[in-house]
């Protein structure tokens, strides 16, 4: 299916998985989210070149792929830390201290929004609602784990825990 596309990133097994994703939908373009996810799982983030590559695979203009990748905060558009902390500051979280939480973590780690600490362990990102409004304020780690009803001492503990885990690996 992809004979005319330079094999930029995916190996033949991964291209089969791309084909499988495409086969689930009526049009190729609908497979964009799982294919972008595959890129991120492989590379850790999604570069402009890889957005163009996904565009070639799915016969979509780069601008379309970029539009999807930049709309969703689950896709990282630049390299992130080993622990990427996404802190929600949308309405419920903001009312329950999400903005203070973000500032606290930013000050504690010495990095601003979308920056990575010099040791590569942490990055932070301010995000829109993650659907956990009833347990605000909250943060999500590496697109997987939710930490809810957070207090500042709990965040201190969490950061220490991650730091100690990172030092063991
Ligand atoms: S407002 Fe923060 S999870 Fe919804």
What does this structure look like?
The protein has a four-stranded mixed beta sheet with strand order 2-1-3-4, covered by helices on one side. The model has no long low-confidence stretch (mean pLDDT 96). Helix 2 (32-43) packs antiparallel against helix 3 (48-58) and helix 3 (48-58) packs across helix 4 (62-71). The protein has helices spanning 12-23, 32-43, 48-58, 62-71, 91-95, 98-109, 152-168, and strands at 83-88, 122-127, 139-141, 145-147. The protein contains seven helices and four strands. With 169 residues, the protein is of the alpha+beta class. The longest helix is centred in the C-terminal third of the chain and has 17 residues, at 152-168. The protein is elongated, with a radius of gyration of 18 Å. 47% of the residues lie in helices and 11% in strands. The chain binds FE2/S2 (inorganic) cluster.
Summarize the model shown:
With 169 residues, the protein is an alpha+beta fold. The protein has seven helices and four strands, in the order H-H-H-H-E-H-H-E-E-E-H. FE2/S2 (inorganic) cluster binds next to helix 5.
Q: How much helical structure, as a percent, in the residues? A: 40-55%
- The proportion of strand residues reads 5-15%
Shape: elongated
Structural class label? alpha+beta
Largest sheet: 4 strands, mixed
Q: Based on DSSP secondary structure assignment, what is the total number of beta strands?
A: 4
Distance between the termini: 40 Å
Q: Which stretches of 5+ consecutive residues score pLDDT under 50?
A: none
Radius of gyration: 18 Å
**Could you say which small molecules are bound to this protein?**
FE2/S2 (inorganic) cluster
| Discrete helix count | 7
